Amino acid sequence: MDAGKLVTLGILGLALVLGVFAWTYHKGRSDRAIDYWGAENAVRVRRAPVLRLSRLRRATEGETEVDSTQPVIQIDGEAWQVDPAIDITDARGLVHLRQALVENGSFDWSRPRAGESLTWDYLMRFEAEGPDATPLEVAIGLDSACLQCLDGRPAVGLRIAAGVRSFLTDA
Known about the structure:
Elements: H1 3-37, H2 39-47, E1 50-58, E2 72-75, E3 78-82, E4 86-87, H3 94-100, E5 107-108, E6 122-127, E7 136-141, E8 146-149, E9 156-158, H4 161-170
Helix pairs in contact: 1-2
């Protein structure tokens, strides 16, 4: 075998080894986060064509969706008033937030602890296209440093709460 063929085979072998390394490295950075979201929701977090943001505030007694101009949602049995949404699809830095939300290092999997009281500040709606597409709703508590996917999943700690606060106040 001549030297040119050996060099070509060596380059192909090195490319294969580096490709496998890159794949396992990136899989290891996001596998637990993707398990939390679910594969379909993780894709929606990364690629939803429309992202809307609403402020949340604890609903006062007597506020219901029927007698209010603003909707009320339930999070773990508590009522939260949803302020009108703004479209943040084109907000500066959104691509970085989306990526952070599918990486393991963004979450504190040991939180919240049993009995920990959580407060929620924002509702993010990742909207997919199509008439039958249901938006993915995510509550974010900045002071609680938690996030909860509102499709029945439990809340998780949010290590990047300070960065999320900075992004959301600029959005």
